[in-house]
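Recap from last week: sequence in, structure out.
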Amino acid sequence: MPSIIITGMPGSGKTHLSMKLASELMDRNISTLILHTDIMKIAMRQFYGDDMRHAAYRGNIQHKSELMLDIITRQAFKADHDGYTLIIEGTLAAGLDLPDSLYVVLDISEEERIRRIKQKHKTARDDLLVDNLDEYRVFLESHENPKAFHLRADQSIDELIKIIISNIKPTSQSSNLS
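Predicted structure tokens:
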């Protein structure tokens, strides 16, 4: 089964969607792993130090993404080889180009994004409400995979999952999708 890459602005619901999608796939007996790029970035600090500090949208976004893409690509090929679905969640996966993978961009209005951010943990909320994300938005748009399809983040999570599953190209290992 191909990897599923989910990107979008902070607050668009990438993590929530990834977790619910993984749960749905596992309920269908499809082995699934989520690779959360924010958590991966934290783990990579031991190798890259200051290059991977701070939120993904701060500092040299391009450089952070480049450092991650090789590792993400290797994990995706391992998932393909080992027969499990890899859900790659996070904006640092922008620019990833994996064959036969499904690329999803969650679109959200700025008003709804701010509303969701206000519900986050205080640390994340405070940073995301004061930081200017214009450069980050431009980075995401300029690194969007041409095969990506856009979903409205304000749709129900069940509807989003239904749309994603209906767009997965079945393989012999994903026959439980229907």
